Amino acid sequence: MKKEVLDFQHKRTTPLDYHQLVIEFAELAKLAWPMVLTQLGQVVMMTTDLALIGGLGPEALAAAALGVVIFLIGFTLGVGLLAPIAPLAAQAFGAKNLAALRRTVRMGLWAALLLSLPIIAFALNGERALLTFGQAPEVARLAQQYLLGLAFGVVPALGFHGFRNFMAAVHRPQPVLWITIGSIPLNALMAYLLIYGKLGLPPLGLFGAGLASSFVNFTMFLVVLWFATMRSPFRDYHVLARLRQFDWPFMKRLIAMGIPVSFIVLLQGGLFLAAGLLAGLVSIRALTAHQIALQVDTVLFVVPVGISTAAAVRVGHAVGRQDGPGVKRAGIIAILLGIMAAAVLTIAVVAVRFEIVGLFVDDTTEGAGATTDLAANLLLVGASFFISDAAQHIAAGGLRGLKDTRIPLLFACVANWLIGFTLSYVLGLKIGLGAIGIWIGLSVGTTIYASFVVTRFLLLASRFAPRCPATS
To answer: From CA 248, how far away is CA 125, in angstroms rounded?
Structure first.
């Protein structure tokens, strides 16, 4: 075993040791930036797919957008259930417990395989679900073609996420970034060839778009598998040892931690879908402006997501090595870094909000000026929302590092839905503030949720005391 494997100890000091704060900031930034860029790469690939599908016509683009929603409902549940791999593996890494690290990755891959079955089944019944929700039959039929192509890639996509969490846990996320960057042009090429039927291939339309994504997912999985088994230092962990050995007690722990994470993500995603429905009740212009502001948030969202995973890993490392001050230090530095990054990006968005909205609005269409003004105002209202959103995601990542996922789920129900959505409904529809009122409600709910999870992390981190190894 090489010396660098499982060698990640820091001297235990008080949270006020500024030298340690600087070290923590540097380690967190080193871990987070590849994750942020990886997340951005995923957004770029999805955007590329939609841009190429747009060449098939507005009906195909609408069908693809609905298909993505159906697919992400199931896939998000799977990714949420795999999220505990990062903090659990990080705790094993911090504790220098190689057996527990192997077990975490092994059962994560088992979970990816088992979870893929219901996700595929749900995707294959997407047309029925869309018809149930009143979508046009032709659009639902086209969406099912896209989903059929995507279904082939569920297993490798979840497997890739499992290895992605493992590599983050051992503080080596760079290969995942390079794999993602390399996959962007491959994805664009395959989508173009299969959608439009180039180089002698038949034109497969939406099915081809989904099939191209599945092909890329298989490729990414094979490459990351090669890294994990053949490249140093990953091969020294032997994470595929005893792969056929199923550990049901550990699987139950993984599920118990992952289910609340999945439901939190679904609750938050459902909140924006519900907000979109409210905006649609106001007017077409309000719905358009809402979707533009939401798309901007999707791009900004990659920063807190990357830092959130880094926070879970850094806190998990500190828990594994029984470093109480290090737990608090890792979480606080991550939250502050996320808030700073979100603040800078938010200031930039507010400063050029009209120019950003102009990228989405055709000036020649009727009412373009009013739509642009409304969307720009939503970005202004959302300024506090963007910062709070970053804080809550990163604090929740820190709580995952402490294996605390159930209470944040309760917080999400109360803050985002009971308070946030209710306020959006009252301000937007009852008082008559329209889309502005809806976004005020979203901002208030998100800010309350952020205050809840940040406070809980600080309390749990302050009370952290050395226990038995977390992965025993």
So the answer is: 30
Whether the CB-CB separation of 447 and 390 falls below 8 Å is answered with no
Query: Environment class of residue 431 by beta-carbon count within 10 Å: exposed (0-12), middle (13-18) or buried (19+)?
Result: exposed
Range list of H helices, 197-323: 205-230, 248-282, 284-300, 302-320
Q: Tell whether omega for the bond before 408 is within 30 degrees of 0, i.e. cis.
A: no
- 277 vs 435: CA distance, rounded Å: 11
What's the rounded Cα separation, in Å, for the pair 157 and 159? 5
pLDDT tens profile 169-198: 988 899 999 999 999 999 999 999 999 988
Location of structure tokens 């042009």 = 185
Judge residue 2's burial from the number of C-beta atoms within 10 Å of its C-beta, 0-12 exposed, 13-18 middle, 19 or more buried: exposed
With tokens 């219901």, the residue in question is: 118
| pLDDT attached to residue 471 | 40
Rounded distance, CA 351 to CA 213, Å? 36
Are 90 and 41 in contact by the 8 Å Cβ rule? The answer is no
- Could you give the CA distance from residue 26 to residue 20 in angstroms, rounded to a whole number? 10
Q: Which amino acid is at 122?
A: F
| 90 within 8 A of 312, measured Cβ to Cβ | yes
Can you tell me which residue has the tokens 């794999």? 179
DSSP class of residue 427 equals: I
Q: Could you read off the pLDDT of 8-42 as tens digits, one per residue?
A: 444 444 445 677 888 888 888 888 899 989 988 98
224: CB partners within 8 A, 6+ apart: 160, 163, 164, 167, 175, 176, 179
How is 255-273 classified by DSSP, letter by letter?
HHHHHHHHHHHHHHHHHHH
Residue 94 in contact with residue 317, Cβ under 8 Å?
yes
Q: CA torsion angle for 268, 266, 218, 110 (degrees, to 10)?
A: 130
Q: Which of 470, 397, 404, 464 is nearest to 104 (CA)?
A: 470
Quick one: CA dihedral 51, 52, 57, 59, positive or negative? negative
**pTM of the model as a whole:** 0.84
Give per-residue pLDDT as tens, 428-455. Answer: 999 988 889 999 999 999 999 999 999 9
Residues in the chain: 472
Helices 18-53, 302-320: crossing angle, 10 deg rounding: 140
Q: Give CA–CA dist 279/274, Å, rounded.
A: 9
Residue 246 φ then ψ, to 5°: -95, 130
